[in-house]
Specification:
Elements (H helix, E strand, L loop, with lengths): L2 H12 L4 E8 L7 H19 L3 E8 L37 H15 L5 E4 H7 L3 H9 L1 H12 L10 E3 L10 E7 L4 E6 L4 E5 L4 E3 L1 H12 L3 E5 L8 H11 L7 E5 L2 E3 L9 H4 L11 H7 L2 H9 L7 E3 L3 H13 L7 H4 L2 H11 L3 H10 L9 H20 L15 H4 L4 H15 L6 H15 L3 H13 L7 H7 L2 H13 L1
Parallel strand pairs: 1-2, 2-3, 9-10, 11-12
Antiparallel strand pairs: 4-8, 5-6, 6-7
Helix pairs in contact: 1-2, 6-8, 7-8, 14-15, 14-16, 18-19, 18-20, 18-22, 19-21
The structure holds zinc ion (2 copies).
Length: about 500
């Protein structure tokens, strides 16, 4: 049984609700990374398990757009120092392409969810506050300040300052949401009166005039949105942590039962910078951390694979994500056991084989079509979808090669015989190449398997080891001593080209 079904069954058994709301949420304070994606994938998996069981369930995503910018991150220009403390929705886009800082990081992620085929209802926290959805929970939090601070102190064991208030006003002078202190409040008028560090004194409405402290916000949101299930990083699940506080706040302040928690482990990214990698991708050289934006990884990894990487592992187990060779092995396994990647003929060609084809075609799309046909696949050139499918898979392969492939898988078809390397070949190796050229001369077209068999046949005929012949083939074609499966390589190339190259090598 898939873990998501086991969780869905347990939820149905344990919870009294007949309708479920499964909430996820991420703060768009920077690029949204693969590590963050786990929360959504878990949510989606449990959501579809529930729906499959006939349960009424919604999947939502709350973007914390009203959260303040905590500090000026290294990717931000110096002048962003002035924006620290302001809500993300009120800060300009650092690259000027979206309507706000929050949208700049949120939109690419939402686009990625589309690519991943994840359907989810989106809520933006700043819009929720502006709509007045929060007014009642804010009123409750303000009038029960003492109960709230007692709960937080009891659960977390930390002391809150005397003037602590669960509501952080948005200062109308400096625009920050982190520096004003509530001095008085009026629950009739639904406003607080604050003093800000900047020297400003003002009034702030319960509607969009500030936001709840986050531990309180989390619990308040459960009530507002009717959340019954929520996956979150295991750090929040630590004893005395934010989920423990949330549970009590939810029950004691809001009379609402906290959602069924699904704590999950981290994704550890295992990778090292590869030469020629794009700058954004090289930045993720640490062995810990998951700082590859989802949209960047989706340029090189087909969506079904990225989903598979995450959904195949139970939430309580950590995931080691290595987008280099281990990812390729996982793709092999997926294509063997689960399904095709890509549509039309592209789906029939294994990703690993595509790596060879794409490198032979060297960025020339019509040559790629020829290479595909030569390697034994029929391309219906008049079929637009088929051609598009090939283009898509080729793009994944090219980006994967550029960003993540180990050097051993990369090759360059040599336009001429590599003279220096040729000297390392023995007479027997050259003779083997000559015999293979002979086959082509006789007009035979050989498939990848035929080529493979032929190499062994020539090996026994010339009394050298097959691996010596493989090496000779790689040297004369790729100027390397190793390469992709020789059968595939040879079957993908123009036979006349191979014949000339092998004969020329044998002559020297
Ligand atoms: Zn932008
Ligand atoms: Zn201020």
């Amino acid at each position: 049984m898939h873990w998501s079904l086991a969780i869905a069954k347990e939820i149905v058994e344990r919870r009294k609700e007949k309708k479920h709301v499964l909430a996820t949420g991420i703060t768009p304070s920077g690029d949204i990374h693969v590590g963050n994606l786990r929360e959504i994938i878990i949510g989606e998996a449990v959501h579809s398990a529930l729906v499959d069981m006939g349960v009424d369930a919604r999947l939502i995503y709350v973007a914390d757009t009203f959260d303040p910018l905590r500090r000026r991150y290294s990717f931000l220009p110096g002048e962003y120092e002035a924006h620290v403390g302001k809500p993300l929705s009120a800060i300009p886009d650092p690259e000027g392409c979206h309507s706000s800082y929050a949208d700049h990081f949120l939109q690419p992620f939402l686009d990625s969810l589309d690519v991943l085929g994840i359907k989810i209802e989106i809520f933006k926290a700043d819009e929720m506050y502006k709509s007045g959805m929060y007014v009642d929970v804010i009123k409750e939090a303000i009038s029960r300040r003492e109960d709230l601070s007692r709960i937080i102190e009891e659960v977390s064991g930390r002391q809150l300052p005397e003037e602590w208030m669960a509501f952080n006003p948005l200062c109308d002078a400096c625009g920050r949401i982190t520096t004003a202190i509530v001095k008085r409040y009026d629950t009739e008028k639904e406003e607080v009166y604050y003093e800000c560090e900047c020297g400003n004194n003002g009034a702030a409405s319960f509607k969009a005039g500030g936001k709840l402290a986050w531990r309180v916000d989390w619990a308040a949101r459960w009530k507002i949105l009717g959340v019954t299930i929520e996956p979150f990083g295991k750090d929040h699940a630590a004893p005395g942590g934010s989920f423990d506080t949330g549970k009590r706040i939810s029950l004691e302040i809001y009379d609402y039962e906290a959602p069924y928690p699904i704590p999950f482990e981290h994704i550890l990214l295992k990778t090292k910078a590869v030469e020629g990698t794009k700058a954004k991708v090289t930045a993720m050289s640490s062995s810990r951390g998951t700082n590859v934006p989802v949209h960047a990884i989706l340029e090189a990894v087909p969506p079904e694979i990225l989903k598979h990487v995450i959904s195949r592992v139970r939430p309580d187990k950590h995931i080691e994500f290595n987008p280099s060779l281990p990812l390729l092995n996982l793709i092999d396994e997926y294509e063997r056991e689960i399904g095709e990647i890509g549509r039309g003929v592209a789906g029939k060609i294994p990703f690993r084989h595509f790596i060879t084809l794409v490198q032979i075609a060297r960025g020339d799309f019509s040559e790629l079509l020829n290479v595909i046909e030569r390697s034994g696949y029929e391309v219906r050139e008049e079929n637009e979808e088929e051609i598009k499918g090939i283009g898509e898979k080729a793009r994944y392969v090219e980006n994967w090669l550029r960003g993540y492939a180990p050097p051993g898988l990369k090759f360059e078809l040599q336009p001429a015989l590599p003279a220096e390397e040729l000297k390392s070949l023995s007479e027997a190796q050259k003779k083997a190449l000559k015999l293979m050229a002979q086959e082509i001369k006789e007009g035979k077209t050989l498939s990848a398997d035929d080529w493979h068999d032929k190499i062994y046949e020539v090996a026994s005929g010339t009394n050298i080891e097959a691996k010596e012949i493989f090496r000779a083939i790689y040297v004369v074609l790729l100027k390397k001593s190793s390469g992709p499966r020789a059968g595939w390589l040879l079957a993908s190339l123009d036979t006349e080209f191979i014949r000339e190259r092998f004969e020329a090598a044998a002559r020297i």
